[in-house]
Amino acid sequence: MRENKALSCVGLIVLFVVAIVASSAMNGWALSVMWGWFVIPVFGLPPLSVVAAIGISMVVRMMTWTGDGDNDSGKSSQEKIITAIAKAFISPLITLAIGYIVHSFM
C-alpha cells in the first residue's frame, strides 16, 4: 500500500512538471502567433520566435501572477490539479481564438 502512494506521488510530480513545460510552450506559441498578427503589422517589429516568446511569456507571467482567486477549498487535490492543468492549456487557446477573430477585422 505504501508503494502505491509513493508511486502515485511520483506520478503526480512528473505530471506537474510535464504540464508546466507543455503549458509554457503553448503560451509561447500563442504569443508568437499573436505577435505576428498584431505587433508586426502595427509597429513593424521583427517576428518573435517561439523560444523567445516562451521566455517573454514566462517573465510576464512571473511579474503579473497574483495567485488563484478561485475558492477551491471544497475540491480534492486531484480536482485542483485537473482544474489547474485545464486552465493552463485552455487559456492560450481561448486567447488565440479571440485574437483570430479580432485579427480577421484588420
3D structure, described in words:
- This protein is mostly helical and 106 residues long.
- The chain has one domain.
- The protein has three helices and no strands.
- Helix 1 crosses helix 2 and helix 1 runs parallel beside helix 3.
- The longest helix has 42 residues.
Q: Which short descriptors sum up this protein?
A:
single chain, 106 residues, mainly alpha, 3 helices, elongated
Number of helices: 3
Largest sheet: none
Gap between N and C termini? 60 Å
Mean of residue pLDDT? 85
Report the structural category: mainly alpha
Number of domains: 1
Would you report the number of β strands? 0
Rg is 17 Å
As a percent range, the share of helical residues equals over 70%
Described by the principal axes of the CA atoms, the overall outline is elongated
What is the string of helix and strand elements? Answer: HHH
Topology:
Blueprint: H1 2-43, H2 50-64, H3 77-104
Helix pairs in contact: 1-2, 1-3
